[in-house]
Known about the structure:
The protein is an alpha/beta fold. The protein has helices at residues 7-16, 19-40, 54-66, 68-71, 91-96, 99-114, 136-147, 186-191, 245-248, 267-275, 290-296, 317-324, 349-356; strands at 43-46, 76-80, 123-127, 154-160, 174-179, 198-203, 212-213, 231-240, 257-265, 282-285, 304-309, 334-339, 363-365, 388-390. It has 13 helices and 14 strands. Strands 1, 2, 3, 4, 5, 6, 7, 8, 9, 10, 11, 12, 13 and 14 form a 14-stranded parallel sheet that branches. 26% of the residues are buried.
Amino acid sequence: MFSSLPVELLCKIASLLSLEDGKNLRLTSKKLCGLATPLVFQAVSLSLNEERRYQECMSFLEALASRVYLARHIQTLYIHGSFDPPYGKGGFWYEITNGRQRAIRLIEKRLLGGIPSLVSLRSLYFSGFHPGELGLDSVNAIMFALSNLPLLSLLNIGLHHGQASYLDFHDLDNISFNGKHGLDIIPTLVARSPNLTRLRLSSPHQTRAVPEAALGIFSGLRKGKLSRVKQLTLEGALILPTHDVPIIVPHLRHLTSLRIHITDVAEEFWSALRIEMIHLEDVSVDIVNDALLEYLGSYSGSRTMMLITEQELDHGSPEFWRNILPKHADTLVELYVQPEYAGRWCLDTRSLDAIRQCKRLEILRVKVDQEKLDVSDKTNIIVSPYVRLHV
C-alpha cells in the first residue's frame, strides 16, 4: 500500500512521526519484510521468451548474484522455453548492432553467476525447454550448475521435444518427464539417482511410431542393481510385453503406487505382482482383464483405485463389486470407475451395496446408467457429507 504513494508524501508522513513512532514503524516494516520475503520468493518463474516479462526476468537474474539473501529463499524454480530473449525486442538498431547476441551473452553470464546462490532450491521445472541460440556448451554449463545445487531433489521436464542436456542431474528423489525421446534421458537419470522413489514418464503417441518398451526406464542400472521406486506413473506410447515382465518386476518390489496408462500391458505382469506379493495402495489402469482383477482380489489395503474399462460391457464387473471392492472397504479413500459404455460397471443397486461398505470413502467418481436409475428409491442417493460424488 505505501509503495503506491508518492515519495514526497511518504517523507511528509515520516516527518510527522515522533521518534518513538518512527522506531516502531521501522521495526514493524523490517519484521513484515522478514515474514513476506520467504513467501514471495519461495517459488519463482523464469520466462525470458516473453516480451512483457523479459526485463523482470533479467532483473531477477541480476539479483540472484547481487542479493544472495533473496536467492536463499527460493525453493521452486520454473523455467519456461529457452534462455533466449524475445524476438520482438529491440528493433532495427538492435539488430544491426548485434544487440541480440549481447543480450544472450548477458543472460548466460547472469545465469552462471546467480545459480550457485540457489542453495535452498528443491524443485526444478522445465516447460518446453530447448537450447535455442545460447549454444550447447553454454546450456551444458548452466545445467551442470543447476545439477550441483545441494538440496535439489525434484526434476520435472515437460513438453520436451528436442535436444537438451539433463544428464548431469543426480541424486534425485522425484523425476517426471513428459515429451519425446524420454528413454534417451530417463535411464541415465534413474541410474544416477540411487534413492529415487517417484518416477513418471509420459510418452506422446506419434503417427507410425512404434511404441517403446517400458522396461527401458531401468536400462541404465548396472547388472544386479535394483530400483527402489515407490511411486511409478507410465503413460502414452509404451508397452510392457510378456518377455519383459520377469526383468521389470524385481525393480518394483518397493512399489506402493502404480498408474499405468500405456498402449499394452501383458496380463502376466499382474500375475507376477500377485506372486511377488507387491501390494499397491494406489492403482490406476485403463486395461481391465482377469489377471488384474485376480491381483486386486489377492490382497487388501488399497487407498485409491481407478479403473477405466474399455472392453466388453460387463466383463469382470460382478467379481469386482461382489468380491474385490469389499476387500479394500476398510481403507479405500478414493474410487474411480469409468466404463466406456453403459452396463454393470455403472452405478446400480449391486455396486451401491458394495460402495456403502467403504466407510472411509471421500471421493467417488462413477457413471450412472440413466435407464436403470430408480429416482424414486431414496437409498440410491449417497448423502454422506464426507463424500465428493462425481457422476
